[in-house]
Amino acid sequence: MRKAMISSLLLGMALAATAPVQAETGQGAINARELSDREEIRTLLVNYGRYLDARQLEDYANLFAEEGVWVGGFGAAVGREAILEMMQGSLGPSGEVPDNPGFHVMTNMIVDTDGDTATAWSRWTFYLKGPDGMPIVGSAGRYEDTLVRRGGEWKFLRRKTNADLYYRPGRDEAQSE
């Protein structure tokens, strides 16, 4: 009898361990693959800011698909090489971090996946070192992304950046755009 109970318990544990992992969302259950995809995309979104802040522009450009599109305050570029050239033209050569570097904080990430394609929406805030040495918000906005999985990795197919707020020290007021 005890042997049968232990066998049943072990069988139940084995079945539970092999069952697909699911999480509830507003749209229903999602499986482990979708959860993993969403986490990989969130990492991509964060790496975008990390590479940009460190001026690792080649790594930054490689976050885009070969035919990727970037649209934002610096203009627009189509293709990984054109994105790299645009960023180098706007920020200088790779690796040259300014004396008073700022940094991006990425938040409010919403990611939806559909197989090998996805969309994401997120907020960004760019902090600068203020006159008193304390951080201040230099600008803030949002990203609207279309993503694609290529070679097992998620890439930006299209990234549109929208700046909602600019602040420049020395001015009397913040500007909204």
CATH class: Alpha Beta
Count of alpha/pi helices: 4
* Helix and strand element order: HEEHHEEHEEEEE
* Main beta sheet: 7 strands, mixed
Please provide the count of β strands: 9
Produce a short descriptive summary.
With 177 residues, the protein is an alpha+beta fold. It has helices at residues 2-18, 32-53, 57-61, 80-91; strands at 22-25, 28-31, 64-72, 75-78, 103-114, 117-129, 135-150, 153-166, 175-176. It contains four helices and nine strands; from the N terminus they run αββααββαβββββ.
Task: Tell me what the structure shows.
The protein is an alpha+beta fold and 177 residues long. The radius of gyration is 22 Å and the shape is globular.
List keywords for this structure.
177 residues; single chain; Nuclear Transport Factor 2, Chain: A; seven-stranded mixed beta sheet; globular; disordered C terminus
List the helices and strands and how they pair.
Layout: H1 2-18, E1 22-25, E2 28-31, H2 32-53, H3 57-61, E3 64-72, E4 75-78, H4 80-91, E5 103-114, E6 117-129, E7 135-150, E8 153-166, E9 175-176
Parallel strand pairs: 3-8
Antiparallel strand pairs: 1-2, 3-4, 5-6, 6-7, 7-8, 8-9
